[in-house]
Specification:
Strand content: 15-25%
Strand order of the largest sheet: 5-4-3-2-1-6-8-7
Helix content: 25-40%
Radius of gyration: 21 Å
Bound molecules: adenosine-5'-diphosphate
Oligomer: single chain
Order of helices and strands: EEEEEHEEHHEHHHEEEHHHHHEHHEEH
Structural class: alpha/beta
Distance between the termini: 9 Å
Length: 397
């Protein structure tokens, strides 16, 4: 089966076209600046050169039509015609409490996704536009929605409730949802597979450390807690997001800066995190370089980031009454050894002995802890597109 995986943002559309039998990525790319002047499509076939084409894209339907054009191009395309696209898998950010698993998209599902719009006002409407565009151009092709929140729907109330009046949960569904669920699911399953164990027998902590970052506690194959909340702002310090803070800071800063609470939230989402703290960059490669050059604020930032990761790991050991595996994933988790080393300094009490030599590894599945270690620490590269492809095939077949 050939599956087109779509991740649609308000002005962008990322795609991968995957042969589900071989799990080979036949082509991938990105449409940028949709609806804005200067839009362009990047197309990278597996066996060819990357192409960047400047082309007007007034809307997402035009973007999807360009993706189809590229995939079926007689010279550089990877399939002959539209008929060779067997299914489409859509990444949907928020499924609220309505979706605990992926689903085939029909009118009712579209309505239910729309009802979650107020929980993710920037993302869900864009995801729906992506679905509508694909439906317009490929009316007969089955489509599947894979939700970022679904894997965490197994959390018990004690993990998802906030200490605020219960009516806000009843009336407005204010609760922890968590995100990156596709990645936490994929990585915990992959960790168990690599170790030759059944995920149902393991307590796994997944550290998804990318530009957005979250940690989850996966007990016996189910997410029992995760660090992101109602929105992706809660939890770890991230590239540009603050993560956890005293909620009173919002009005305190609004008063000091003479701006609205909404504007403070923009600062907390876009100007904070390691970017705001370090004054260097949101990119950990820049941070690491600055640290090695002796930049004191870069050092403090890396230490603060790692300290927060270690504290979450400690709290999830408590939540699960133990841990068997700690799995690092995403850009920073897979590549930034200094962060893993700094986090590791706090975890000796668990009996996780990360071998400093192995810890230099990056970007591949590898066990970092030594043989005598009570807790296995490992890197497991995430692959959200492949996970979406697998989910799509599972439902469509
Ligand atoms: P997201 O998907 O949330 O945008 P990623 O998982 O791609 O984020 O992670 C991006 C982060 O990973 C950046 O801070 C980047 O510096 C860091 N990183 C560190 N080393 C590498 C590397 N070799 N390749 C890619 N990203 C890296």
């Amino acid at each position: 089966m050939n599956v087109l995986v779509i991740n649609c943002g308000s002005s962008s559309l990322k795609y991968q076209f995957i042969n589900s039998n071989t799990e080979e990525v036949l082509a991938k790319g990105l449409c940028e600046r949709i609806g804005i002047e200067g839009s362009q499509i990047t197309y990278q076939p597996a066996d060819g050169d990357k192409e960047v084409t400047v082309a007007p894209m007034p809307d997402h339907t035009k973007a999807v039509s360009l993706v189809i054009e590229k995939l079926t191009n007689p010279v550089t395309g990877v399939v002959k015609s539209l008929d060779d696209i067997d299914a489409v898998g859509h990444r949907i950010v928020h499924g609220g409490e309505k979706f605990a698993t992926s689903v085939i998209i029909d009118d009712e599902v579209m309505k239910a996704i729309e009802e979650c719009n107020d929980l993710a006002p920037l993302h869900n409407p864009a995801n729906l536009i992506g679905i509508n565009s694909c439906k317009a151009l490929m009316p007969k092709v089955p489509m599947v929605a894979v939700f970022d929140t679904a894997f965490h729907q197994t959390m018990p109330p004690k993990a998802y409730l906030y200490g605020i009046p219960y009516s806000y949960y009843e009336d407005f569904k204010v609760r922890r949802y968590g995100f990156h669920g596709t990645s936490h699911d994929f990585v915990s399953a992959e960790a168990a597979r690599v170790l030759g164990k059944d995920r149902k027998d393991l307590k796994i902590i997944v550290c998804h450390l990318g530009n957005g970052a979250s940690i989850s506690a996966v007990k016996n194959g189910k997410s029992v807690d995760t660090s992101m909340g109602l929105t992706p702002l809660e939890g770890l310090i991230m590239g540009t997001r603050s993560g956890d803070l005293d909620p009173a800071i919002v009005t305190f800063l609004a008063n000091k800066l003479e701006v609205s609470a909404e504007e403070v939230l923009t600062i907390l989402n876009k100007k904070s995190g390691v970017y705001g703290l370090s004054r260097v960059s949101s990119d950990f490669r820049d941070l690491e370089k600055a640290y090695r050059e002796g930049n004191e604020l870069a050092k403090i930032t890396l230490e603060t980031f790692s300290y927060h990761v270690a504290k979450y790991i400690g709290s999830y050991v408590a939540a699960m009454n133990g841990v068997d595996v700690i799995a690092y994933t995403a850009g920073v988790g897979e590549n930034t050894s200094i962060v893993r080393a700094m986090v590791g300094e706090y975890l000796g009490y668990l009996g996780t002995n990360v071998d400093p030599e192995r810890n230099k590894m990056r970007g591949e599945t590898v066990i970092l802890s030594d043989e005598g270690s009570k807790v296995v620490t490992m890197i497991v590269p995430t692959n959200e597109e492949l996970a979406i492809c697998r989910e799509t095939v599972r439902l469509v077949k």
